[in-house]
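> call design_seq(struct)
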């Protein structure tokens, strides 16, 4: 029970924007717990919140290698790469993500962001449309994302045009 308390406390600290305290909770875990996938992913998230992109990237890539069927490490790896201005690599990581991630809105949303940053507007639109099909909440999230605001407006005008034709 003690380990779960530390993990939940670390998540809570991270949610409150207190990454140093989150890391202290992780460090207080028994050695055997620190290397569980959930705790390692949490550690990556702490590094990311501290803008320690390389530390997060190294750990996230190790998680991809160790748990190739788990989707979250691929998303974390891509986020770290993108933050390091390695956007094309981030996209390629997501394109190689496991099948378990293929029908997740978060994958398509992130691919849309990356394609938009790379200037691939038609691909970005296609991925954003798929993300919204999978989870309509992605549309409002995209509306506040500086990389996707224009795409959301185009998607809305397309929907309005289709509605007018009907």
């Amino acid at each position: 029970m003690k380990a779960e308390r530390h993990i939940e406390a670390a998540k809570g600290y991270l949610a409150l924007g207190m990454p140093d305290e989150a890391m202290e909770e992780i460090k207080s875990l028994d050695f055997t717990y620190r290397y569980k996938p959930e705790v390692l992913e949490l550690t990556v998230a702490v590094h990311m919140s501290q803008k320690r992109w390389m530390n997060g990237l190294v750990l996230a890539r190790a998680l991809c290698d160790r748990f190739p069927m788990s989707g979250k490490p691929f998303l974390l790896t891509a986020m770290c790469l993108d933050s390091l201005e390695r956007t094309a690599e981030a996209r390629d990581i997501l394109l190689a993500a496991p099948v378990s991630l293929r029908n997740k809105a978060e994958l398509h949303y992130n691919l849309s962001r990356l394609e938009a940053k790379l200037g691939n507007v038609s691909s970005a639109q296609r991925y954003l449309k798929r993300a919204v099909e999978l989870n309509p909440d992605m549309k409002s999230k995209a509306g506040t994302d500086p990389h996707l605001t224009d795409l959301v407006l185009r998607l809305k005008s397309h929907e309005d045009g289709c509605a007018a034709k009907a």
